[in-house]
Amino acid sequence: MGAERIIAINAEKCTNCKMCEIVCSIYHDGKGTLNHSRIKVQGWKDVAAYFPVVCQHCETPACEEACPAKARKKVGSTGAMITDTKKCVGCKSCIYACPFAAPSIHPDTKKTMTCDLCEGEPLCVQFCNYNAISYVPFYKVSISRKKSYYEVLLKTWKNMPGRRG
What is the pTM of this model? Predict the structure, then answer.
């Protein structure tokens, strides 16, 4: 079973302030650097469209199936999909398999890392001043997330420099 609660993104509200990334890296590694964060803000600066990318803790995770070392596992209390760093060989198979491109390589250990939901109290949610990130029951996410991402992507595409029509 997947996570009962999940981090949901409202891309329309994201300002690219990076507070979610900073608080994540401080909590997990004691470093306020963006490359230590398990959440990554992506986007297009030209049109000011941003969206945090974070593990969706899928019910049937492609990252788990792709891992040759069997290092990807679910945490029972939260349903978070994490990396067992003792087993991970840093091959990046999970990164390539993830449809959200959520796993990333830890800059120090060179092993993959993803959101662990901060033991059920995600700090990125608590510190997002714009309410772009929320922690909601899983069943509420799929339709609203898809709609939000689609609307931002469509608006961004329509506003791309050089695009006609």
Answer: 0.82
The answer to whether 113 touches 103, Cβ cutoff 8 Å, is yes
The 3-state DSSP class for residue 139 equals helix
Cα separation, 55 vs 147, in Å, equals 18
Structure confidence by residue, pLDDT tens digits, 112-136: 999 999 999 999 999 999 999 999 9
| Domains, the chain, with CATH or none | 5-156 (3.30.70.20)
Contact assessment for residue 22 and residue 5, using Cβ atoms and an 8 Å cutoff: no
Q: What are phi and psi of 121, to 5 degrees?
A: -135, 70
Q: Do residues 66 and 142 touch, judged by C-beta distance below 8 A?
A: no
Cα 7 to Cα 81: distance, rounded to the nearest angstrom: 13
